[in-house]
Every structure is written in C-alpha cells, then in structure tokens.
Amino acid sequence: MPITDTVSATWTEFARLLLEKGSDSDQQAILNTIGAHEGLTPLDADLLLPIVTELLLDPDPHVRYFARKARNKLDQQVSPQRRAAELASEAKKDATTDTVHLTRQEILLNKMRLGSRYVAFEAIDRLIESEVPSLAGPMLEFLAAETDLFKISFLVKRLPRLNDPRIPAALEPFLRHHDPRVVANTLEGLSLCRTPHLRDEFVRLTASPDNRVKAAAVRTLYAYEPHLAERRIQDMLENPSIAMQDSGVYLLRTIRPPRLNALMEIPLSSKFPSIRLLALEIPKHSHTLEVSEPTTTGTPLTIHYADKGLISSLLVATFLVMTSSYFSEIQSFLILLVLGAALASTAKNRPSSLLRAVISTGIIACGIWGDGTLLAVPALLAVWHPAHHSEDDRLPRISAWTFALIATLLAQLITGFFPELADIAARAGVAGAGPIGDFRAIAAQDARFAGFIFTIVATASYILLHINEWYSSPQFRGGNTRRLLIFFALALGAVILMSFGRLWNLRFNLVSLGVTDPIQLFRLPGK
Question: CA distances (Å), 190 to each of 9, 219, 311, in order?
C-alpha cells in the first residue's frame, strides 16, 4: 500500500531536489527508483511529473532512458482531479466554438489543436483509428505548424497508419530533428511504410548514441538489410550501457531474428539482473529454425569487439617488444601467457572472440620468437581463410591456423639465430673457403633448407583446410577428426625434422670453415 507518512513526503522533496540540481548519476538513480517504486501516491506523481517530463530532453541518453521509465510509471499514478481539471478546461475552450454544424471528424480535428496534451492525444488516436485517407491533409498541416514536441512525437509515430503517399516525404525531415524522441517516433512511423530510398539514413541513425533512436532505426532497417540489422542488435546487446542492452532485448523480442538463440546468450550473461530477467522471458526458436552465426552474417564479431581485440593485441605486442631487453625469454613468455589469458577472458564465452584471442596470442609469440618468413603463412590464412568463418568447416580452419603458428614458432626455436646471422653475413659480403665449399655456397644451401621448410608449412596448411573435403564420401566421413590429427602430427614432425636438419647441416658446414661460434662469421674475410 502507498506510504503517506512524513518520511515519504521528505523523500519526495529530496527526489525532486536531486532531479532539479543533482548530477547525472544522481538523476539516473532517482529516476530508476521512481520507475520501480510501487508506493507512489497521486500526490507524488503530481509533484514529480513536471520535472521528470523535462528530463526527457536531457542531453545524457541514460538520464533520458530512466526518465522515460519514470514518466510511464508516474502517468499511471496522476491524480484523477488533475486529469479531470485539464479535460474540463479544454471542454470550456471547446464550448466557446460553434460545434452544432461540425462533423465528428471536424470536432476531433479542433480538439487536436487544443492546448491540453491529453485531449490532443485522444483526438489523434481516434482520428487515426478511423483510417480515413482524407484526414492526412489536415493532419499534415497541423504537423507542419505544431511546436509542442510531445504532440509532434505522438503524431509522427501514428500518422503513417493513414494510407497517403505524402506522409513518408512529410516525415523525412523529422529524421534530423534535434529531439531524439521525435526522431525515434518518426523511425517507428516510417517502419510502417516502404521507403527503401531512406536506407542510408536508417543506417546512419543506427549509430545514434540514443538507445531509442538506435533501436527504432534498427527495427526499420531490418526490412531492407536484415543481416546488417542483426549485427547492430548484437552491438547493442554487447554495449556496456543498460539502456542499449534494454533496447537490444526489446528488438530480440519484437523482431525475433533468425539468430535469436545465439544472440540470446549475450543478454543472459549481462551484469544487469533486469536485462537477464527480460531475456529469460523471450521464447527461443526451435532447433529447426535456428541459424548459425556465421551463416547469417559476414563476420561474427561486431565492430566494437573487433576494435577492442585489435587494440588489446597491439598493446600486448608493443609492450613485449619494448620490454624485450629488460626480461629474459622465459620471463617474456610468462608475461605473454598472463596477458593472453587476460585477453581471452574478455571473450564473454563467444567462440569467435575466444578463438581470435588465442590466435592473437600465438601470432604475437611467433612475431617475437618465431621465424619471420614463415609468418607469411598465417598472414595469408588471415586474409583468405579466417579461423572462425562457418560452422561446417571450423575444425579444419582451426587445425590449419594452429599448425601454421606452431610450425612458425618451433622452426625458430629449434634453429635459433644461427641461420639469420649466416644470412646477414652473406648479404654483407663475408666470404671464406673450406674443404667442402665456400661460405656463400653454404649460405645458399641454408636458404634452400628454409625454402623447403616454408613449402612444407604452406602445403600442409592448405591440405589441412581441404583434407576433409577430399575425403567427403560416406566411407571416409566418420574419421574426419582422426584424419586431421594424424596429418597434423605428421606435418609438424616433418617441420621439426627439417629444422633440426637445417641446423645440423649449417653447423657442420661452418665447422669446416673453422666457425664454431656465430660471432666468428664476421671475422671471415670479405669479398
């Protein structure tokens, strides 16, 4: 039951004071409380409604979000005396005009122009419900002359229900209105029309910082670009703002996109309990209707998380490169493992994000300690065969990526920097002769070994991508995973053997020149 004691009155005055003079965070907290308050009295509603209505135009989108919830709550509690007084006042104004010879529609059009919002809203609703196309003309004239933002936003949302070709063109300028409520309601109205020429405008508004505008733009865009609209819904669900997440869940409930089941996992793991509860109320698609994430969209990652992952990976790589002279290789490797685990922990249980985090860690390790030439293989895989592209070929792609990264790292760890120093010395013009050949011939032979290793890595990576396709007949289909693992092990073993062979061959040939330490390469005579 409502609380009507002195404490309640004191709280109401305190709430009004914070709404008028408090910070954005104070206003959000009070508005959130009002929106969930079950003990508000009509007197409280009469006192708080004016200031809450003003906050619907606040610059902060979070304040506007909570203000809308609070306003809806207060509208239910407005005292009957206040509403009756407004209606009586407008009735007196209406009585001063001659309504004897006016039709019902003309009377409603007159009421629409009256000052009271309640009367105008009721008149607009009744006119729209009549679905008379001839009403579009006078209502468009009223829209062009009206200055009350509440009436404008109320009308642009409902006007497209009238079947008139002039309406979409008349609403188009309101897409750039300064009031986000007007823009959002215009988008909701245009969703009832067919306006493909406004597609670019809808795409622009999907980047709006206002959650209502963004949600309305996505809902309207879904009729023309469903795949892009789904990605925007995912953006909203992954946004840290509760307002954006709330609107994203609303879109899941109303649009029910093909990837509903996959997208539902995002709000179900939200840090906001209210978002999780709203998500639980949405029934999922049956398994026959479920569409996998990569099949529906070109990329499983949103721009927000793609940028976050790229920046995090670049920062980790930069830190390790800049501090490589201060830490040993073991220490740097342990630091990379810790930072890589931290990067992977931000994946929010999404396979594509987790896989990218793991691969980013592997690429950083290969870049710092791996064979630079062999890095071309995972780089080309990134261009032509992203690791997480479709559900049916995920395992071959992961196998190819893993093999390329491990081979790149092991080839360098096994051979060390001896081959690189030999190549630098050969390019610098170092020469020398021994019983089995001169230094330049030895360097050329080592380069051929490097070419053989590169060929093995490149060929094996390609085979891992397609080996299951080549053995796709029914008699081979059952052992796909086993076949991949066997070939993976054989190819990796070949790379390891070739790397040891390269190292032993180079050392043996250099010993014939009297070189037992890498620094001695630069003491050999020049050309």
Answer: 44, 10, 38
Residue 246 lies in a domain: yes
Helix (H) or strand (E) holding 129: helix 117-130
287 and 317 housed in the same domain? no
Same structural domain for residues 309 and 415?
no
CA distance 466 to 390: 14
Distance from C-alpha of 355 to C-alpha of 305, rounded to nearest angstrom: 13
Q: Are 143 and 170 spatial neighbours (Cβ–Cβ below 8 Å)? A: yes
Residue 94 lies in a domain: no
pLDDT at 369 over 60: yes
- Place 7 in a pLDDT band, splitting at 50, 70 and 90: very low
The alpha carbon torsion through 107, 112, 113, 116 (nearest 10 deg) reads 120
Residue 295's pLDDT band (cuts 50, 70, 90): very low
Can you read off the two tokens belonging to residue 69?
Answer: 């919830």
Q: Over 50: is that where the pLDDT of 6 sits? A: no
Instruction: In whole angstroms, give the CA distance from residue 262 to residue 290.
Output: 8
At 433, is the secondary structure helix, strand, or coil?
A: strand
pLDDT of residue 9: 54
Pair 221, 154 in one domain: yes
Same domain, 112 and 237: yes
Tokens matching residue 523: 């003491």
3-state secondary structure of 270: coil
- pTM exceeds cut of 0.85: no
**In DSSP terms, which residues pair with 433 in a beta bridge?**
438
Query: Of 369, 387, 402, which residue sits at a domain end?
Result: 369
